[in-house]
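#dry-run=false #mode=assembly
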Amino acid sequence: MSKEAKPESMSLHPLGGGAEVTTEQEPLCVFGTGDMGRSLGQRLLQTGYKVAYGSRRPLGCGPVPQGAQVMSYADAAQLASVVFVCIHREHYGLMEKLSSQLKGKVLVDVSNNPEQNLYPEANAVYLQRLLPGSHVVKAFNTLSAWALQNGPSDACRQVYVCGNSAEAKQAVAEVATKMGLTVLDRGSLSASQELEDFPLQLFPEWRLPLQIAVGLTAFFFFYVLIRDVIYSYVDQGKDISFRIMVSLANKVFPIVSLIMLSLCYLPGVIAAFLQLYRGTKYRRFPDWLDRWMLCRKQLGLLALALAFLHVLYTLIIPIRYYVRFKSWEYVITQVKENQTSKFDTTVAWRSDSYLSVGILGFGLYVLLGITSLPSVSNALSWREFSYVQSKLGHVTLFLCTLHTYLYGWDRFLRPSTYKWYTPPGFMLSLVVPSVVLVLKVLLLVPCVDRSVTRIRRGWERTQPDEEKTLLT
Amino acid sequence: MSKEAKPESMSLHPLGGGAEVTTEQEPLCVFGTGDMGRSLGQRLLQTGYKVAYGSRRPLGCGPVPQGAQVMSYADAAQLASVVFVCIHREHYGLMEKLSSQLKGKVLVDVSNNPEQNLYPEANAVYLQRLLPGSHVVKAFNTLSAWALQNGPSDACRQVYVCGNSAEAKQAVAEVATKMGLTVLDRGSLSASQELEDFPLQLFPEWRLPLQIAVGLTAFFFFYVLIRDVIYSYVDQGKDISFRIMVSLANKVFPIVSLIMLSLCYLPGVIAAFLQLYRGTKYRRFPDWLDRWMLCRKQLGLLALALAFLHVLYTLIIPIRYYVRFKSWEYVITQVKENQTSKFDTTVAWRSDSYLSVGILGFGLYVLLGITSLPSVSNALSWREFSYVQSKLGHVTLFLCTLHTYLYGWDRFLRPSTYKWYTPPGFMLSLVVPSVVLVLKVLLLVPCVDRSVTRIRRGWERTQPDEEKTLLT
Amino acid sequence: MSKEAKPESMSLHPLGGGAEVTTEQEPLCVFGTGDMGRSLGQRLLQTGYKVAYGSRRPLGCGPVPQGAQVMSYADAAQLASVVFVCIHREHYGLMEKLSSQLKGKVLVDVSNNPEQNLYPEANAVYLQRLLPGSHVVKAFNTLSAWALQNGPSDACRQVYVCGNSAEAKQAVAEVATKMGLTVLDRGSLSASQELEDFPLQLFPEWRLPLQIAVGLTAFFFFYVLIRDVIYSYVDQGKDISFRIMVSLANKVFPIVSLIMLSLCYLPGVIAAFLQLYRGTKYRRFPDWLDRWMLCRKQLGLLALALAFLHVLYTLIIPIRYYVRFKSWEYVITQVKENQTSKFDTTVAWRSDSYLSVGILGFGLYVLLGITSLPSVSNALSWREFSYVQSKLGHVTLFLCTLHTYLYGWDRFLRPSTYKWYTPPGFMLSLVVPSVVLVLKVLLLVPCVDRSVTRIRRGWERTQPDEEKTLLT
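#status=ok
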């Protein structure tokens, strides 16, 4: 250890191989003492670096982390070869005056914009244009000041870096690695627009599944509204509009949930048949199928949320005023008219089976949801994950579909079901899941299964002698 | 970079820059073969280090990890420049005799105490006092033997290091980094007391929210007890004490849950108005507000737990003996007295709306809870997280408040509601949420919203020309 | 490695000590352009390495990541000293022809087999046998192509490495570390069988708990079936087989759930008494106890799943046709026979208490489940985790046991309960939890507690003067 202080070795290792040596020599410079500047500086100090803040008002800039120096921009820039620019884009003009002091230095642009498309060019590109003699690197902007202060964890551990100078990027990567972060190189500075848009994203991968959910919900809401409330009003003159709040919701939610669950498993089945038809797995799927497959998780989680609501709506049924009233009315009528109804074992079987299958289906559904949590799915091996999501997933779909068939029971054959010649909503909801299950059963037929497995392991029908590479 | 090829630099850097070289040269030494010693040694071996154990009874010390040597303390100390002291504090006296062998060496104190405040000084400080010639570094004590053996993950990945010698800390940091851990420097050895208290902490950030929850629950329990059970006994001579178990619980839990949910969002609203009033975001909030804001997550999760209990208590209502008895009694009375009640659509609307709004509110509430899981919130961008927690959070608060207003309905105006001139509990629970929602609506008024946004982006009313630094 | 100290060694050891230097000099080579080859190459490029693909058909091999070169195997092998072999085992024969080009090179075998025990020897061992002049290292096979492409997170961050050459392993470890992964050395190449079996594992630690759950469920199902359905048929000639779907399920699930929850806490109690009896904690537990303790988490989570189903089955009771029919029948009979039943406060107390205790028990149970999520338990200190899992766990067990006792109530004494002289299922389920709770109470007696604590801190009855090492 003591030998480390040897003069000749120190100066020779500015960034590579012995970053800790740097600590002794040259501080890092942080421009700006706002939230981001303070958090970044504090973290750098904790990691063992010396930090010099550059500020327009070195004396009146507010509190900086203990152990850091504050000085003017020009003085701070002189001290370090790496400068973190934690200043709003609007004040980048200030930097232009420092172009001589910043010449040849690595400038790390950590800035974000409050909104997308506020400026014609990315902040980092703008900074590079202002200071052509410096090496601008875009980095750290996807980390929040909060994450920097509290120590990064899990997903927050990734730092995306882009810039035109490989050496400058390497210098920044060294610092980030020392801070316990994982560095991902995203190429040249032209990628900085993408990096700056990243923290402004709002659930991009949820957009399509949400649109599908909203669209289906709206469609089935009006469908059921017409068949139930409006039909009742037109046909019998009865106003049952109060049923919108619970009864209709409890019809629409399970319908949409079942359809969306089956939409999760449909693309997998289509893909298998496509591979069978093509006889290879090396040709790309059409774009729409790729996009569809990428949003299966979101489709499934939305379906689970709707199933959860369906469970709650079902469980409160006996508490509803309407249900209690009807129940009392029924008993009173029975007593008054001296009727006796007989207990029907078949109805009991059907009613209990339908409830029991629904509960088991929902139980598995919740299990699928839990294994979708990042920390749980990360702890599973690939085989375990696919076992749960594929095998248990299809069993869930089967149980939920069976639940709906049992719910329907003899209503499929009763003419009174088809008001205004339309089938009830739950029948419509059975179409896609039934198709998926039938196709899945076809794929499980031994000879088909064998072909698919062979193709997925790299076998090709048309090029039997070719090299086959590893699947995973 | 290329200069690294210089011949003399290689051999001079035993730990820096080329830690793998060390493997060939010098083992690390572990004193003590207990759980911690064994786990640490095993992990060091897996990482590629050679390990020599020091033991008082080298021959009878029990199993050590395969590949490690066991020898006397003195022999082991001779071999290595870094010694991990995995011995109970009570036996530190043994170390004093080794002071000559340990002179100049780095001693890593990994010890923890079974309780806080057991000794007047931290273990590491005590060790340094016993061996003034060695460089004591406190480290690794926040990792459990279990985590070391099974490989660290996520939060367990952080190693806090403190010590008086920067070089000694650097040497320990190198080893920790090689083990896949993230190092955070906590300064000089005087910080070791804090590090030793860390693993003994028991939910410090939950204490205040729990106290609030318990206090509110106790208050409302007695309030409702007096208004329901005691009033009924005094006024009508009826003993309805059995209602404590379910009915009272199901009044107290939702009341406290709603108040605590609104307490989550109150500090944010207060902070916004404070910033508006001050015209800057650069002045610190008062301490009480800071503390309050830091425990919002815990407040919200406790409120969610109580809401979950409320849901369960509500759903079992129809199973209760009391409810079934009253229902039967009602029907029998109706039949006997030949009464007929008429179906009231307004009541049906109100009852269904109140249930439906409650279910939707609870659904969103669960969503907020899920996004609070560390692995989920880490996977969200800052904007996504704040969208969920702020926007959806306020919608949740609105739905839950509406649920309570709908529950109250015309009871607000009925004089019989105000037993002993006191309002029922649910009315009291509406005060804070209503205030929060009104203030939040005020903040959403365009001109106010614009001012707040401007201030949060760094604008200051009093210093219009000053430098503004990056928010995040 | 030892050559690293030599001046010319820098250019020869691109991977040791200064991995970033490599970027400038020597590419890494990837054989095979399948899923794994592409993903690995892309990640290496992102990390800053140059990548050369070796392919049998350099011109027709399909898309490779941008920035990578594609050439023949022989040419690619020439360029790099580290070669990632991303080819199916069946095509390893191709490699034999390249033995001269691959001589002295580090070959990283990343392959997995589709099934266990497909081949007599591990893929990596086979590769080493084919190419005795190369240094085969098994690594990266536990990462999926998916995880490599999307950046590793949490558990996916660990790379297991084994091989016969320490230098070759070091070279691979350097690359993995640069990629943000944590390296664990698993020893010589003979460990590769174990590493190759790893991704094919299917919930090995869940097998025993699942067998217990299925065994108990089957036993209690038939037990309850005989006592309920068959007894009713034999004794009264009534067919109540429809009760299988809900009533029987709702008896079996809570019974098995309670037993499994108590099986979670039984081994801890046994271990404490064993330590008390032996007077030391340094002797190993018998194997069956070790295995039992290792699957406590899985036992508990399965018990929670069954408790969850029990809750759902209970909550749908009032919706069941059978229950509604019986309820109406009861009222109608009462009216017709002009009976009046009196409200029984004791029954109300018991019914409400039993429900309320069950709800609180389930609430705590869910809390235990949430703290078992990897990301949550990682965020807890050791003391916090053991507080929740041990203290709250025993409270949960107590509440659930009390719930069952309250459910039984006076049925314990009623002779009609014991059909065919057998106790009902819920009584059987009370045996183990009652034993666990009694033993736990014994351990909480101050003098016993003190002894256990002392032993767990390292005190030994038989060797009072010996050295005691650190617990954790």
